[in-house]
């Protein structure tokens, strides 16, 4: 006999089994939900302890468990080390973008682009992951050299809990319209929404949006997927997160060198002593609020006044 799904017709034993099943599920999901609400390394370790680990996932867990400021683990997926790597990488990206644009770019000259790449098994070896990433990188570079050589790209690779590699980043295209950019991307990435330009990201001030885009592209300790701000979790999420932390580290290699992609970003403009200079050494005016954002700290005004 098939047990009835109606709680009112279940036997006491069936109701008890259903209750115990819900309790076990809540115990499995609780560490993931706690980490999603407040990301920290101890909570991440407890999340990993809630699932079976072996091989590199167990090694990553042990590194995270012993990570402290004076003895960092260096993992990109670590709440402590990943955030430090992220802050540094974001400052470097903002400096490079403003230098390449010669200041603050115009809204029609910059776009946020996502490109979806290959999918690898979460149990894949390090060689397999790096080979897939290398092929994906070359495909993007070929698209740039064939039809988008005058554009400048800066962004970072990521991998989802399903094992799909993708790239988020900013593209500067002062000599091309956004529609021309989309057409060129579609030639090399013809699958539906394989490469797409975000349409509605210009609702905020431009450089605030660029900062948010780079913040989103650098995942670091953001492991739990969300939909409209709510975590999407199930009984397998903890195990998938453990594997993803390892795959991210395979991709990153040292620091974030392996996941950064920048194309045609060389410029005569350069930052020196908190000031952006052009090729002749003249200062390029940058709004002070954005200068604070770029440098990640307080800066002096152009007249050498007080710290802001």
What do you see in this structure?
Mean pLDDT is 84; it is low at 299-308. This protein has helices at 12-37, 41-49, 56-65, 79-101, 126-147, 178-188, 206-217, 237-252, 288-295; strands spanning 110-119, 152-159, 164-172, 195-197, 226-227, 230-231, 260-263, 270-272, 275-277, 283-284. The strands form 3 sheets. It has a 5-stranded antiparallel beta sheet, with helices on both faces. Strands 8-9-10 form a 3-stranded antiparallel beta sheet, with helices on one face. Strand 5 and strand 6 form a beta hairpin. The protein folds into 2 domains: 11-65, no CATH class; 81-263. It is built from 9 helices and 10 strands. With 308 residues, it is α+β, with helices and mostly antiparallel strands.
Write a concise synopsis of the structure shown.
The protein is 44% helix and 15% strand. It has nine helices and ten strands. A hairpin with a 5-residue loop joins strand 9 (275-277) and strand 10 (283-284).
What is this structure's SSE topology?
Elements lengths: L11 H26 L3 H9 L6 H10 L13 H23 L8 E10 L6 H22 L4 E8 L4 E9 L5 H11 L6 E3 L8 H12 L8 E2 L2 E2 L5 H16 L7 E4 L6 E3 L2 E3 L5 E2 L3 H8 L13
Antiparallel strand pairs: 1-3, 1-4, 2-3, 2-7, 5-6, 8-9, 9-10
